[in-house]
Amino acid sequence: xxxxxxxxxxxxxxxxxxxxxxxxxxxxxxxxxxxxxxxxxxxxxxxxxxxxxxxxxxxxxxxxxxxxxxxxxxxxxxxxxxxxxxxxxxxxxxxxxxxxxxxxxxxxxxxxxxxxxxxxxxxxxxxxxxxxxxxxxxxxxxxxxxxxxxxxxxx
Length: 155
What we know:
Strand order of the largest sheet: 5-7-6-8-9
Number of helices: 5
Distance between the termini: 37 Å
Number of strands: 9
Largest sheet: 5 strands, antiparallel
Radius of gyration: 16 Å
Strand content: 15-25%
Helix content: 25-40%
């Protein structure tokens, strides 16, 4: 059969191109690319462009967190896709002095701290573990650290 087209994002997370339909989201495979007359690179570029158009700017939905606070984006099944738009996280990281650690326990949930101290990371790790266990469709319990070049796994 036709194969899905995963691309690595960070840690155990991958990106998959999808077709958003009124009642469902269909993962695109190689046969779909051919039917659309697009290469895999063109399909991903179109997906990124559509995300940029559809999603509200991150700073309009993400709160700047204070010390000992964990931020949360929830209620939109595309919140996890925001991680693919790496550059869009730059303003939030900048406000937190370049320190930003995020996790996506479910497709509709992103948790984050504007602090990379061991205490903050451990608090986030515990919350993410609980959120992942409770999620109807768990995604990942890994933590990712924002850098100007890419997301990096927090060990």
